[in-house]
Write a structure and sequence with these properties.
Chain lengths: 254, 344
């Protein structure tokens, strides 16, 4: 039985990171690395504390909102899209190349155009996040549904199951582990998407704050925001794991 | 009974409609050309001191990522009025039918400058021969560099040009990865504090001292907004002009206001920025033509520099078609602040 409690092995990554901190700190002092190249952890901590919590929470919330909403939008688009591609070979052949083209277009390069297309406000940021996250979701869901054993499909057909039932009761459950793998990739990408969008147009958010800090050469402050972003990614990743554990425990590998 | 209730309701509705329309302020979206800072203080001052409110305006600020970004947003109507570089405007106008016009000058001198450490041996623009020069990829300064080099007899292939992210330029200078950095005078304070970190002094060489004289940052409006709502645009400019004067009369207070509205902007840095760029706003040009004015001859000179730097035929654009002078409040060349600064 898979357990979701904190065992030593699960704490190991955090412990490794904690052990790195004193090494990092000492290295900065011994080699006299200037703070604009690599600030010491203590300096980053100080920069973190110098910014009022209300500012952090404003930026944090702005990024989190875009990341989560963009991710959910992407989920709502990609699963039906995957279903369509599984059901129709013709559509799969027409849509798939388009998806690959969209995926291989660097979103960073077209982000300024998206801002102009979608106007001010949150919609361009959501669109950018959505574009960055949806490909792994579509691919994982399609692969999952296609990997359903053929005999099960045959059986359902011989029992007269409708195409909707075939998707809902057989193909989708088979795809769940794949979908969650895709979701784990997509959720970390959603933070990257939100940050990319904030670099191009935003008045708040952690990505905006990193850009703001570097433009004022406040490198320790930028590092503090970057660490915040990493923690946020980790937490969101864990949240996806938790959802899988709570609602689709059967899909976890034993 | 019913009629009296209905009458009261009717009267209440009429009063509330009348008062709400009287209270409703005209909404204006102001476009910054970069992130907030001391150099953008006037717009924050005008909001905080109620200069806009007094003109019955409600102003929302939208942050930008460079002059081109700002121009695009203004042209698309995402913002009504805002900052951009005159050279970017003229370049865009020469190449497309972009529906925006300059209405007021803000920095009537170019803020481009060389930043170098005191021990680099660079004391004037012509000293950059044989040096490594770092600049950010998208700054309008890059366009004028070849002209500046020509003016100062620096051969093209005598320098090594490095393009980097704007945030990396300061660290590159102090770590010795470059000898000279190209940036704007508005960033002097930030570079100085970087140099202080390693106990060195910064040398700033403004390009206007090396012969490059023209308008830089101007207020630009979306043509639809300017033509359809000239009254709002006029009121905006009255309030904005007042805010410019307030900012440089009370720099301390202006810096505090920027910090109050955008807490990420450090009060001290904002104050130092406001003080250090006074000469871009109040100078001999301001004394001669008035605050905010866009003078015909100086505009023509600005266009000739832009045309030369971009390789355009001089006749490709009549720079006057990029300007709308009908909205600026009467220029005042006798203001005490203008005169005091010009005397400096």
């Amino acid at each position: 039985m898979h357990k979701f409690n904190l065992s030593f092995s699960q704490l190991l990554p955090s412990l490794t990171l904690l052990a790195l901190l004193p090494i990092w700190e000492t290295a900065v002092y011994i080699f006299e690395i200037p703070n604009f190249l690599l600030p010491a952890p203590s300096e980053i901590m100080q920069a973190f504390l110098n910014v009022e919590w209300s500012r952090w929470s404003t930026h944090l919330w702005a990024t989190l909102r875009v990341a989560i909403l963009g991710f959910l939008m992407s989920l709502c688009i990609s699963i039906p899209l995957a279903v369509i591609m599984v059901r129709s070979k013709f559509l799969a052949k027409t849509i798939y190349p388009l998806l690959v083209i969209i995926q291989s277009t660097p979103v960073v390069a077209i982000a300024p155009l998206l801002i102009v297309m979608f106007g001010a406000g949150e919609s361009p940021r959501l669109a950018i996040t959505c574009l960055i996250t949806f490909f792994p979701l579509v691919v994982s869901a399609t692969t999952g549904m296609m990997s359903t054993p053929e005999e099960l499909i045959e059986l359902s057909k011989s029992l007269g199951a409708s195409p909707a039932k075939e998707i809902w009761h057989i193909r989708l459950p088979y795809a769940v582990p794949h979908i969650f793998s895709g979701m784990k990739v997509a959720i970390t990408l959603s933070i990257i998407g939100a940050v990319v969008a904030e670099f191009v147009a935003a008045e708040q958010g952690l990505g905006y704050f990193v850009q703001f800090s570097t433009s004022y050469f406040k490198i320790p402050q930028a590092f503090a925001a970057l660490l915040f972003l990493s923690v946020l990614s980790l937490l969101l990743f864990k949240a996806v794991q938790l959802v899988q554990y709570l609602f689709f425990r059967w899909s976890l590998q034993k | 009974m019913y009629t009296s209730v209905l009458k009261r309701l009717g009267t209440y509705l009429i009063i509330s409609l009348v008062t709400s329309s009287a209270l409703a302020q005209d909404k204006v979206t102001f476009q910054l050309d970069w992130l907030p800072g001391g150099d953008k203080a006037p717009v924050y001052v005008a909001i905080d001191k109620g200069f806009f409110a007094k003109q019955n305006l409600e102003v929302k600020i939208s942050h930008g990522r460079g002059s081109t970004d700002s121009l695009t947003k203004l042209a698309m109507g995402m913002s009504d009025i805002g900052y951009a570089d005159l050279s970017s405007l003229l370049t865009a106008k020469a190449q497309s039918n972009i529906q925006v016009s300059a209405v007021m000058s803000v920095f009537n001198k170019a803020p481009h400058a060389f930043f170098t450490l005191e021990d680099s041996g660079v004391t004037k623009a012509s000293d950059i021969k044989g040096k490594r020069i770092a600049t950010s990829a998208f700054t309008s300064s890059n366009v004028f560099l070849p002209l500046l080099m020509e003016l100062n007899q620096v051969p093209k292939n005598s320098i090594r040009f490095i393009k980097a992210d704007p945030g990396a330029l300061g660290p590159m200078l102090v770590t010795g990865n470059t000898d000279v950095v190209i940036s704007w005078l508005t960033d002097s304070v930030k570079y100085q504090s970087q140099a202080n970190n390693i106990g060195k002094k910064l040398t700033v060489l403004p390009w206007y001292d090396a012969g490059l004289e023209f308008y830089a940052t101007v207020l630009i409006g979306n043509d639809k907004f300017l033509n359809n709502k000239p009254d709002i645009a006029k009121r905006f400019l009255i309030a904005y002009k007042k805010a410019i004067e307030f900012t440089w009369q009370h720099p301390q207070q202006a810096a505090e206001i920027v910090n109050k509205i955008v807490p990420e902007v450090d009060k001290k840095v904002a104050l130092e920025t406001i003080t250090s760029i006074k000469g871009l706003v109040f100078n001999e040009v301001t004394k001669a033509h008035g605050l905010g004015a866009i003078n015909k001859e100086r505009l023509a000179t600005s266009w000739s520099w832009v045309a030369k730097s971009q390789g355009f035929e001089h006749s490709k654009l009549d720079p006057e078609t990029a300007i709308n002078r009908s909205l600026l409040p009467p220029v005042n060349t006798t203001s005490s602040l203008v005169n005091a600064e010009a005397a400096l």
